[in-house]
Every structure is written in structure tokens, then in C-alpha cells.
């Protein structure tokens, strides 16, 4: 009965799951970050690069699952409504998208090679404020099951991209990666506006209902 119930739940949640997956993948943006990943690991051997990406994926996945699972309780602890969080998160996402569109990502210098997998690849490149905000909001609106499955799918796809990063980079080229990064930034901006409008609409609805 449990597998059947799970299948029914997932089937009913497919639209929410698809939306959560796309939104989270756009915010994480592994394709647009390919030049950054390569730049941060350019002095490493192939084995060291794979190990670095392995550490980054494990660290990022644990962080994302943590925030998906306990983000709701963090909001309760500080007495923050989902509407307020959606507006604040939307503004944050909008700022991130504008930074990506106008300036791109500025990589940190003088980082020891052994720490690159954790900082900055896992956090904040893979799991930054935008990703944390997104996963918490989808937990609130779509539930823990949808949020966790979306995280698993996003990191599985990110693993594939990092595993074959050299062929993908050759396929996209510098110009292609730049275009992907800017297009992703536009999608992030659109998602941010949607979060803000939804939060404001809910507040007005609660105020006049």
C-alpha cells in the first residue's frame, strides 16, 4: 500500500515537482558556472578535479537537504511568515540575478586547493542564498517530498555535468557558457518577481479576507 500511495502522491505532485526542479536547477546554474568551475580547478590534475567536484556535490547535497528539511522550523523559530520570506527571498533572488547579468561571478583568489570543493564550489556557487531561499519556499508551498526529490534530481544532473565538464565546456565554448549564464540569470529574475508578487498578493488577501 505504501508504494502505491507514494506513486499516487508523486503523480499528483508532478506539476509542482517539475516547477521546483526547473526553478532550483536555474538557481544552482551548473551550466552557466562551468567556466568558474574550470577556472577554480585549472591547476589540478584530472583526479584532483574529480575529487574536488565529488566533495562539492556531497557537501552541497547535504546542505540543501538540511535546509529543505529544517528550513520551515527556522522560519517558525524566528516567527517569519512564508509571505514575508517569499518577498525577502524574491528580492534577494532579484539582486543575485542582476549581479549575474551585469557583473557575473567574481571568483575568490588565494584559496587553498583542498578547500575549493567546499568553498566556493559547494557554497555559495551550488548552494547559495538563492538556492536556500528557493528550496525553503518550495518546502512551504509543495511539501517536503517534492522539495527533496527536486534536490536529488538537480544534484544528479549537476553530477553528470561536472563528470563530463570538459566535453560540455568544449561544446558550449566561452561564448556559449556566457550566454547560458545570462539566460539563467533572466529566469532567476522572473522567478524572483513571481515570488514577490505571490507574497504581496497573499498578504493583501489575508488582510482583506
Describe this structure in words.
- It is a single chain.
- The chain has 209 residues and is mainly α.
- The protein has one domain (28-36, 44-208).
- Helices cover 83% and strands 0% of the residues.
- The protein has nine helices and no strands.
- Helix 2 packs antiparallel against helix 7 and helix 5 (82-102) runs antiparallel to helix 9.
- It is globular and about 60 Å long.
- It starts with a helix and ends with a helix.
- The relative contact order is 0.20.
- Residues 106-110 have low confidence and may be disordered.
- What share of the residues does DSSP label as strand, in percent? under 5%
Residue share in helix: over 70%
Principal-axis shape: globular
Please identify the structural class as seen in this structure: mainly alpha
Mean pLDDT across every amino acid position: 79
Unreliable segments (pLDDT under 50, ≥5 consecutive)?
Answer: 106-110
Number of domains: 1
Euclidean distance between termini CA atoms: 40 Å
Count of helix runs: 9
Main sheet record: none
**Element pattern in H and E:** HHHHHHHHH
Number of strands: 0
Q: Compute the CA-based radius of gyration.
A: 18 Å
